[in-house]
Design goal:
single chain; alpha+beta; OB fold (Dihydrolipoamide Acetyltransferase, E2P); 5-stranded mixed sheet; 5 strands
């Protein structure tokens, strides 16, 4: 019993360490050198698509502000999808539109 417990704990430790090593942090480090201008916490929003590509997120209650996400999960790339989102607004995006803001998603649900 004691030996099996140690083997089980060892396997669990290996699995946990392996998961941490395989995690893709490339998208989680969006805009690393850009200051956060504001936080969004549990805000209802809508995903907008242009030509089948993820374009932007519109917070409910806003008119012209568009959040340009750097890490929108593929499962959420649906035009008109209503979501609950949290994240960091990272300043103006260089899209040529006045009210586009870079956005790093920290949590998103349907």
């Amino acid at each position: 019993m004691g030996r099996n417990l140690y083997i089980g704990l060892g396997l669990l430790f290996i699995l946990i360490m392996n998961e941490g090593c395989n995690k893709d942090d490339s998208k989680s480090d969006c805009f690393p050198n850009v200051a956060t201008t504001r936080q969004i916490v549990n805000q209802y929003a809508t995903i907008k698509m242009i030509g089948g590509t993820p374009a932007y997120i519109v917070e409910d209650g806003t008119i012209d502000t568009r959040l340009i996400p750097c890490n929108l999960p593929h499962d959420f790339e649906q035009d008109g999808l209503h979501v609950l989102v949290s994240g960091e607004v990272k300043g103006s995006a260089s899209t040529g539109v006045c009210c586009d803001e870079n956005f790093k998603i920290t949590a998103i649900t349907r």
